[in-house]
Amino acid sequence: MFAWLGGIGLLSTGHLHVPALLAPGRTAQTVTSSPLYQGMWAAFLLYCLALLVYLGGYISKRLRSSERDVELKNRRLQEALSSLGRAHAELTTAYERLKRTEAHLIQSEKMRSLGELVAGVAHELSNPISFVSANVEHLRRYVNSLARGMEIQGTLPLPPDERARFEAQRRELRIEEALTELPQLLDDCEEGARRTKHIVNELRAFSRSDRQEAWERADVHRGIDSTLALLAHRLKDHITVHRQFGEVPEVECLSGPLNQVFMNVLVNAADAIGQNKGNVWISTGLSRIDLPSQAGTPAVTIAIRDDGAGIAKEAQARIFDPFFTTKMVGQGTGLGLSVSYGIVERHGGTLTVESTPGGGSTFTITLPVKQPRAAAPGAAS
Prior knowledge:
Number of helices: 10
Shape: rod-shaped
Radius of gyration: 48 Å
Largest sheet: 5 strands, mixed
Oligomer: single chain
Distance between the termini: 103 Å
């Protein structure tokens, strides 16, 4: 076929002469104008056209197939990229959750490591403070009796020289001054014993050695309101409280310790504001527990925000450590927030802080609506 086509081409260009066609009296010009030659040339052109059409279709088919392959590969690449993006997001979320869990576990370990020591200290302090508190009351009665006796002795009829000697001894011994100051000294002793007892109670709460309260369903709004009522003398003059309560269910909790958490956080907010005029915002709402052991558990969130001085970044990492405080010496024990952390942890919840120096602080308490049976067996803890 190709030889035939080549022969026609050479013949048409004059490079090939066909003797059979060149009979006597017939020239090459006569041959090229003959119907046979023109038919052969037409067949050659048709064949070339058909070949071009075939090649065009073949190439077009291959191109379409290549486009489909490229589109399929591109779609697969897009799916792979999307899958990698989802995997990256999941890994990022898991990493953040692991970091939070690690911080939570570190804090829990700190609580456990100091629990036994603090429980022993609280027990050793409890007995002598009880003695002091009990003896102060007896001393107060004795002082009153002594003062009454001195009054009676002063009214007894004595000779003038004995009376003068008696009055001189009273002045020398400063009996009147002692009788005047003793009640105040006893009041100071009683106040010191009361404060020490309060510290012992916080130590006990921190070590979780006192577990006599019963688990019950309680309204967190009522607990917050009762706590605010107790703090009214500290807040009413210069701090405005904004309640932003949502529709939340009652939570299964130890209402006494939980109110202690509200008290500690609100007292810290008041201390952060100081004597300046300020605001405290208390908001509640529904959320979920973000802990691996209780992931997705329905919870109630209480956020307490103030516009006080805020907390330095380096102090935020230690804010829940026992005995750590940013207050002046004598103004805080450093136990309030650590005790609160332990109480919230015991409830299976979380206590976190966000703060900017000069921009206030927000303490967020998250509590599960229902306690696991292991945490609240029966009616008592």
